[in-house]
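FW: tagging you since you asked about this chain on Friday. Here's the raw sequence from the shared folder, copied in full. Didn't touch anything.
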Amino acid sequence: MEFNELLKKRRSIYALSDKVEVKDQIIIDALANAINNAPTAFDSGATHIIVALGEKHHFVWDLTEKTLKKIVPENKFASTKVKLETFRKGYGTILVFKDLEKIDELKKAYPGFANRQDDWGEQNIGILVYSLWLSLYNVGLGGSIQHYDPLIDEGIKKEFKVPEGWKLETEMVFGNVLLDPPAKEYDPLESRLIVSK
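HL: got it, structure written out here
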C-alpha cells in the first residue's frame, strides 16, 4: 500500500474476526520488520513484543475478564464483558513491553541525559506501536490498542515467562476487519501545523 494511503487507513478497529487469510509467517515477518527498524534511544533496543495467537490470544482476554470481574461492579460488568468479547474475537494480540533494565543502564551510561531516559522510553513505545499498527494494515489486517496493564501484568508475566525488567505497556488486538470505522473528521490543519521560515 502506498505510504500516505496507509497513514490515512490506519484507524482503531473494534469489529474484528479471527477469519484471517494472511499466513502467520507473513504477519510475524511484518511485525519483526517493525520492531527491528523502529528506533530506540541510543539504539538500545529497549522495546520487546510477544505475539499471542490461538489459545494464547484467548488467554490474554480470559485473564483480563477474570481480573476485571473482581473489580468492576456487578451491575456494570455486562458492558465490560461485551467489550472484552470483541477483543477475544480477533486473531491475535501483540503484547508490547518497555525494557526498564536497559533504560536504567542508559541512565548510568549517560548521566547527563538520565532525567530524559524515561521520557525517551515512552517515545520508543509510541514509535514501535505505530510501526506495528501500520505493518498490520499493510498486510490487510486491522486492530486497536488497549491498556489493561498493570491490572493483568502478573498473569501475563507468569503465562508468557516474561523476563524481569520488562514492563507491559499496551495490548494490541488485531484481526480481519469486519466493519470500517466512520469517516474521520480533522481539526483545522492550521491549528496543528505551523510553518516558519
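FW: The chain is about 45% helix and 15% strand.
HL: agreed, and The chain has one domain: 3-178.
FW: great, closing this out.
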